[in-house]
């Protein structure tokens, strides 16, 4: 049975750390006290997010006729599915049923994913690349709250996601018609708010002002990483 984060017993103070991929050195630490959710909440959300990435990427594979794009998207989908399976294995090893652990978050995360499905292939590709990047970063940071299990999840999420080649597809789309640049820039900006809401919901639905102040450095860093991804594609953030 999943215990929601407002139902838990008193727990040690936890620290949320945001660090660059592959960085195992010191990082700026933000003390969140008891804002981090229960372990099963964290694992269930992280596992279901990866399954959602896989589903969206699979949809894109079916939607495109370009064989090279299909191959790029298939690699990214395969990486997401492998991460999903790895986190599911951790849940099972912890003695829980993975489907039961993920189920409470299905409706919310499916709704988020539907919001990020663009009317055209290029927008959906960009959405996967940007939202998955932001949320992977967030869950890698949040993993520091859960000891050895968290460290293993962080290792899984830090593995190659094979989404970098999507950048080339987006850049080729922009080069084919300059109007795509402004359209995709606008789409990329629209994605930020909904993605940050998903990250906030992973901690607590309603945060007092003082706790919002503690969260601010983490979300500032997430948005900074988002801006760098946008810049790398030649899009204004």
TrEMBL record:
Residues 42-198 form the Ferritin-like domain. Pfam families: MiaE_2. This is Ferritin-like domain-containing protein.
């Amino acid at each position: 049975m999943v215990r929601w984060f407002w139902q838990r017993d008193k727990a040690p103070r936890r620290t949320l750390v945001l660090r660059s991929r592959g960085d195992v050195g010191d990082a700026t630490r933000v003390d969140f006290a008891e804002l981090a959710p229960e372990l099963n909440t964290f694992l269930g959300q992280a596992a279901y997010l990866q399954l959602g990435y896989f589903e969206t990427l699979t949809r894109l594979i079916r939607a495109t006729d370009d064989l090279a794009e299909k191959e790029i998207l298939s690699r990214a989908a395969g990486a997401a599915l492998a991460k999903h399976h790895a986190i599911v294995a951790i849940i099972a090893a912890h003695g829980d049923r993975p489907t039961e652990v993920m189920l409470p978050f299905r409706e919310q995360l499916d709704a988020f994913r539907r919001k990020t499905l663009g009317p055209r292939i290029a927008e959906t590709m960009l959405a996967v690349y940007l939202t998955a990047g932001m949320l992977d970063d967030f869950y890698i940071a949040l993993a520091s709250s859960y000891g050895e299990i968290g460290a293993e999840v962080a290792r899984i999420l830090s593995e190659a996601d094979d989404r970098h080649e999507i950048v080339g597809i987006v850049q080729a789309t922009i080069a084919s018609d300059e109007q795509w640049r402004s359209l995709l820039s606008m789409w990329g900006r629209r994605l930020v708010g909904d993605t940050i809401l998903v990250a906030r919901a992973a901690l607590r639905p309603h945060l007092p002002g003082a706790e919002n102040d503690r969260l601010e450095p983490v979300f500032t860093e997430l948005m900074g990483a988002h801006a760098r991804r946008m810049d790398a594609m030649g899009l204004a953030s």
